[in-house]
Write a structure and sequence with these properties.
Blueprint: H1 6-22, E1 27-30, H2 37-44, E2 50-53, H3 57-71, E3 75-79, H4 83-86, H5 89-98, E4 102-108, E5 134-137, H6 146-160, E6 168-173, E7 195-197, E8 217-221, H7 230-240, E9 244-246, H8 267-271, H9 274-279, E10 284-288, H10 295-304, E11 307-311, E12 326-328, H11 332-340, H12 348-370, H13 375-385, E13 391-394, H14 398-406, E14 415-417, H15 428-437, E15 442-445, H16 448-453, H17 455-464, E16 468-474, H18 494-497, H19 506-513, E17 516-519, H20 523-534, E18 539-545, H21 548-560
Parallel strand pairs: 1-2, 1-3, 3-4, 4-6, 5-6, 7-12, 8-9, 8-10, 10-11, 11-12, 13-14, 13-15, 15-16, 16-18, 17-18
Helix pairs in contact: 1-2, 1-6, 3-5, 7-11, 13-14, 13-20, 15-17
Length: about 575
């Protein structure tokens, strides 16, 4: 194992407690032990945090409970590993049922010492079961950074004091050495790099006006069916003059709310271009919905790190890149009204984004119209065939990325759905059948591997007499891997290990099971066949053969179009 830097452990732990103090945690109850040394020292050295040292963990737990009851603020607890942590359980249970906020920090052995007979080591993962509001088995502290420590603290404080207050449990794996090397034991100043807004309901909305003082902001809308909030977000974009980067699976790319509002279509291509993205950096990002799928957007935000405000009524703290600077726990409507109170003057910033998107759309149309029918063109053809109010269910892997990149912005309402929670390719057909069972006209865009994974769904749909139109770009399995570095690694048997052709005779399967099968080769043919299928009962399976190499080449050609927009 490489040399462990104990000072990094101390930097992470010190940042954690400083952030807790910044969120109103004024007391820490410590039970002495060896493994918890970094937590103990840094907590004690945090400005604004009073330390209480109690040997018996059971006593310490109930002492913290009483302190939290009396002050109305969360109290932190720190103990070493093993049965020490188990002795907190009675107090944690009482805090759970009494809704008393506690932040329980249990030190633990690192993963390589677990389940190997190491002294003072028990299974502490989920030790308190359902009696905590949130549990996290943290990464080894020496492998993390200070920003991670602060964000974990912000989430812990917010969760412990939320609408359903109670205890949270953070399990801290710590590697030796446990004493600092050069870290100076100066008292850590409290801070709050992640501001938490939890407006009282009913009551005034959040104070967000200051976030729109900058003229160069953007609105990001991640996955989640947010169609009901389209008009609110559209009004916000129009008044602020901020472009909207709406993921297709937000269902905000289409509908009446986009008319005369700066909803963009090809922002993924724009942000993937280093020159264009580097010249158009926002000061503020307002995000609604979950973390976006787009890798280009994620890397762009990570590179420039603007202020990021997330509005989320469920307080899910979905922030895989550690970008969020303020979490607003409220409904979209009140947040929009608070933002609208700030300012409003569309100008050059909006014009540059909208004009670039329009010019890029013309260039993309030219490439797709003149080239073969591949995955980007399939998205456009399917979109053209779907009537207003219908649903497009999209598989993960390449389909969801192609829909995100090439689904047009249009006033025709269309619901776009994908399983972006865990982002797997299993059960996609069955999900689409469930949507169809609701009575919505439904088309499924799915990869050949995902379709193979859920052949049982086709069988179930036929037995249930459901109506579904399935479009499958058949690229011979695992086409997404062609875009990854492993495809060009000379020491890897790429075809054998990553390309997974289904080897299913789709036409034969359709004939055997009573599906209607068609194979198409052009965009106009695909649109016509889909339109006809949507008007009939039963399940239609429409295949488009896709050459993987040609598909990769077309995607790269589309990305290169942004060169024409950059002087």
């Amino acid at each position: 194992m490489t040399d462990i830097d104990p000072d990094q452990t101390y930097r992470v732990s010190a940042a954690f407690f400083a952030e807790l103090a910044g969120h109103g945690v004024g007391h820490v109850v410590i039970s002495p032990g060896s493994r918890s040394t970094p937590l103990t020292i840094t907590a004690h050295r945090t400005e604004g945090m009073i330390s209480h040292v109690l040997l018996d963990e059971r006593v310490a737990g109930f002492f913290a409970l009483g302190l939290a009851r009396a002050t109305g603020a969360p109290v932190a607890l720190v103990c070493t590993s093993g049965t020490a942590a188990a002795n907190y359980l009675p107090a944690v249970i009482e805090a759970h049922h009494s809704r008393v906020p506690l932040i329980v920090c249990t030190a633990d052995r690192p993963p390589e010492l677990r389940d190997r007979g190491a002294a003072q080591t028990i299974d502490q993962v989920g030790l308190y079961g359902s009696h905590v509001r949130w549990f996290a088995d943290l990464p080894v502290a020496s492998d993390a950074d200070a920003a991670f420590g602060r964000r974990i603290a912000a989430r812990a404080a917010s969760t412990a004091t939320g609408r359903h207050p109670g205890p949270v449990h953070l399990n801290w794996p710590l590697r030796e050495p446990l004493t600092p090397r050069t870290w100076t034991a100066s008292r850590e100043q409290p801070a709050a790099i992640v501001a938490i807004d939890r407006p009282v309901d009913p009551g005034p909305g959040p104070d967000l006006a200051g976030h729109v003082a900058a003229s160069n902001g953007i609105i990001v809308v991640g996955p989640g069916d947010l169609a009901a909030s389209g008009e609110d977000i559209g009004r916000l974009a129009a008044q602020l003059g901020w472009p909207v980067l709406a993921e297709a699976t937000s269902s905000l790319r289409t509908g009446s709310h986009v008319v005369d509002r700066p909803f963009l279509q090809h922002w993924d291509l724009l942000l993937g271009h280093a020159g264009w993205g580097g010249e158009h950096v926002p000061a503020v990002v307002i995000r609604f919905g979950g973390p976006p799928t787009s890798k280009a957007l994620r890397l762009w935000l990570e590179r420039h790190r603007p202020e990021v405000v997330v509005v989320d009524r469920a307080a899910r703290f979905e922030d895989p890149s550690d970008l969020v600077t303020r979490m607003v726990i409220t409904e979209i409507g009140p947040a929009v009204e608070a933002l609208l109170a700030g300012r409003g003057a569309a100008g050059e910033w909006e014009r540059r984004w909208v004009e670039a998107d329009r010019r890029l759309a013309d260039l993309v149309d030219r490439v797709l119209d003149d080239g073969p029918l591949l995955e980007a063109g399939i998205v456009r053809a399917l979109d053209r065939a779907l009537p207003a109010g219908s649903a497009m269910v999209v598989s993960n892997s390449m389909p969801v990325r192609d829909v995100d990149g090439y689904l047009p912005v249009t006033s025709r309402p269309l619901r776009v759905m994908a399983n972006r929670g865990a982002a797997g390719i299993d059960g996609v057909t069955s999900t689409a059948l469930g949507v169809a069972a609701s009575g919505i006209t439904t088309a499924l865009l799915t990869g050949d591997v995902a379709l193979t994974h859920d052949l049982g769904g086709l069988h179930a749909g036929l037995r249930a007499g459901l109506d579904l139109t399935v479009v499958v770009p058949d690229n011979g399995g695992g086409g997404i891997f062609e875009f990854l570095p492993v495809a060009h690694h000379t020491d890897v048997d790429f075809e054998q290990l990553f390309i997974t052709p289904s080897d299913v005779d789709w036409e034969g399967l359709a004939a055997l099971r009573g599906l209607r099968f068609r194979e198409v080769t052009t965009a106009s043919e695909l649109a016509d066949v889909v339109a006809g299928a949507l008007g009939r009962s039963g399940i239609d399976l429409i295949r488009v053969r896709v050459d993987r190499a040609a598909n990769v080449a077309q995607h790269r050609a589309l990305a290169a179009l942004v060169d024409e927009l950059v002087p």
